[in-house]
Design a protein that fits this description.
The complex is a heterodimer of chains A (266) and B (272). Chain A has 266 residues and is mostly helical. Chain A has 13 helices and no strands. Helix content of chain A is 72%, strand content 0%. Chain B has one domain. Helices cover 78% and strands 0% of the residues of chain B. The chains are: A mainly alpha (266), B mainly alpha (272). At the A-B interface, α2 and α10 of A face α2 and α8 of B.
Chain lengths: 266, 272
């Protein structure tokens, strides 16, 4: 308990440092957020133009598809906001020998690496995600209940951890290979599939994003529950379970990696 | 000419070595990138299944497959990293090392990139073109590959690459002035991506907008080569669009020269 308190306090200190640093470069920060908004706007234009051709996509209306897309941006954005520094582990921290500094501090390395950076550009994704949900929800016929609202809010941190878990495991590969940035990238890009109804894919893709690289649980499955109320046990329950399993695996692989780690020197 | 080639040869081979040293990494990176193509493929498949029309704005499903994957191939072939490098070099002062050498600044970038580009093209073009043609064969039952279109496509890609190269250099100088390189670069990529047809074929845009987009330099980047490969541009239209590409190459080349001479007067390197 005491340790948890210490971690929270340290998190606050790190974040406030980050915010001070960002205030030095206000322009960068605003332009970065707008950049991410632009990227999402491109996809919205794509969907909008597609739906000018067909009334529905395999039974899903434009509003529903946009809702699923918007929902997918929230866990993605949260992971991007809080755990972005894992990319640096895979890309250069280990290769350039900069990782040593984390080992000399009296904190857990994984905790230290992740809290060190707050990637504020992620607000672009979060703003877009929340706006898309708010715009589409009024025109979708959803049956609301207290349970649904609770489950919807509860699944978001777990969905976020699915991203983080996959990133930890793939980033930790760098402890053995010195560099794994592009391996993280390869796995991470699979999340693109999760933003659209799983029905449109063939069984190979469907099985891959459900059972092997389970990004479908970060977006489509929870969103399906919210829209239709179907299968809460699978759509929400399994999402949570997978998040816990991935985080557990992530910590194990990370700790093994730390043991195997040899500094690249500097 | 021969002397020039001798001067720039080291830059070409440096670029080639860069790719071959990190080839495993490069393969992972490409697999990550090609994922997006498959997402669009499945979306379009669902669109064609949901609509009753087998032809949408001039595209059938097999044509759409060709479009998606060739768009990816073309963007990779004509991509150019000039924007970032110039900004970074001005920022950290290493540009000074390039300026003191008696060779053209832009050319060193160009040749270094041509080296890495050569490797990329060799590794990508065969599997992608082959794959696309197999799909076309499976859909239509006859071989659709035309060598003339393919050669014209390569020529058009060369022009597109040059447009992109000089455009990015211009943008690199501007981005340096406005300072927010990373975010500005992302916005640029999104706008260019949309206007060059990477997001959706330009024929899906409303009439007037499509006409405007076709005139802009961005359509000359990705859209023109892909249309040529697919055999949609031929005869007078083909000549017109290749001519337009040539015009944009010259325009951006001139502009980059101009920006270069202006910014050299203002450049001051601290340390470095």
């Amino acid at each position: 308990m005491k340790q948890l308190k210490r971690m929270f306090r340290m998190h606050r200190i790190f974040v406030s440092q980050e915010i001070k640093r960002m205030m030095e470069y206000k322009g960068d920060f605003v332009v970065g957020i707008i950049g991410f908004l632009f990227a999402q706007a491109n996809n919205m234009l794509f969907l909008w133009l597609i739906f000018s051709q067909v009334p529905s996509l395999m039974g899903w209306s434009l509003e529903e598809v946009v809702f699923i897309y918007g929902f997918s941006l929230i866990p993605k954005g949260l992971d991007h906001l809080f755990f972005d520094n894992l990319w640096a582990v895979g890309h250069w921290l280990i290769q350039k020998g900069d990782f040593d500094k984390y080992l000399t501090r009296p904190v857990n390395t994984l905790f230290h690496v992740t809290v060190e950076k707050l990637q504020i550009d992620a607000l672009g994704e979060l703003i877009m995600g929340i706006s898309l949900i708010c715009i589409t929800l009024p025109s979708i016929d959803v049956e609301w209940s207290v349970l649904k609202v609770v489950l919807m809010l509860a699944v978001i941190p777990f969905a976020t951890l699915i991203y983080t878990g996959i990133k930890i495991i793939t980033a930790a590969i760098a402890f053995w290979t010195k560099k794994s940035g592009n391996i993280i990238y390869m796995f991470y890009m699979v999340n693109d599939f999760a933003k659209y109804p799983v029905k449109i894919y063939n069984s190979f893709v469907k099985n891959t994003i459900t059972y092997i690289i389970p990004f479908a649980f970060t977006a489509y499955y929870p969103a399906e529950y919210i829209l239709t109320g179907a299968n809460p046990l699978f759509n929400i329950g399994v999402s949570m379970l997978i998040a816990l399993v991935l985080m557990f695996l992530g910590v194990i692989v990370w700790n093994r990696g730390i043991k195997a780690y040899e500094s690249a020197g500097s | 000419m021969k002397k020039k080639l001798r001067i720039y040869k080291p830059f070409i081979s440096a670029g080639m070595q860069e790719v071959s040293t990190y080839r495993i990494n490069w393969i992972f990176f490409m697999i990550g990138n090609v994922m997006g193509c498959f997402v669009s493929y499945f979306i379009w498949k669902a669109v064609f299944l949901s609509g009753d029309n087998p032809i949408m704005n001039g595209f059938t499903m097999p044509q759409m497959v060709v479009y998606i994957f060739l768009m990816f191939l073309t963007s990779t072939m004509i991509s150019s990293g000039g924007t970032y490098d110039i900004g970074e070099e001005i920022r950290d002062g290493s540009i000074a090392m390039r300026i003191i050498k008696p060779i053209s600044y832009n050319s060193t970038f160009l040749f270094q990139e041509l080296g890495s580009k050569f490797m990329t093209v060799c590794l990508l073009i065969v599997p992608l073109v082959f794959g696309v043609e197999i799909v076309r064969y499976a859909f239509t039952g006859s071989v659709q590959f035309e060598i003339l279109n393919f050669l014209l496509y390569i020529l058009s890609c060369v022009f597109a690459y040059l447009i992109n190269f000089f455009f990015n250099i211009c943008f690199g100088f501007i981005a340096f002035v406005i300072k927010y390189l990373w975010g500005a670069n992302m916005m640029k990529n999104c706008i260019v991506g949309f206007l060059s047809g990477t997001v959706i074929p330009l024929s899906f845009l409303p009439g007037t907008l499509e006409k405007i987009c076709l005139l802009l330099p961005f359509a000359s980047l990705n859209y023109t080569p892909v249309m040529i490969y697919m055999g949609i541009y031929h005869g007078a239209a083909l000549l017109y669009y290749i001519g337009l590409q040539l015009f944009w190459v010259l325009a951006f080349w001139g502009l980059s020269k101009l920006l270069w001479s202006v910014s050299m007067k203002h450049l001051s390197v601290q340390g470095g």
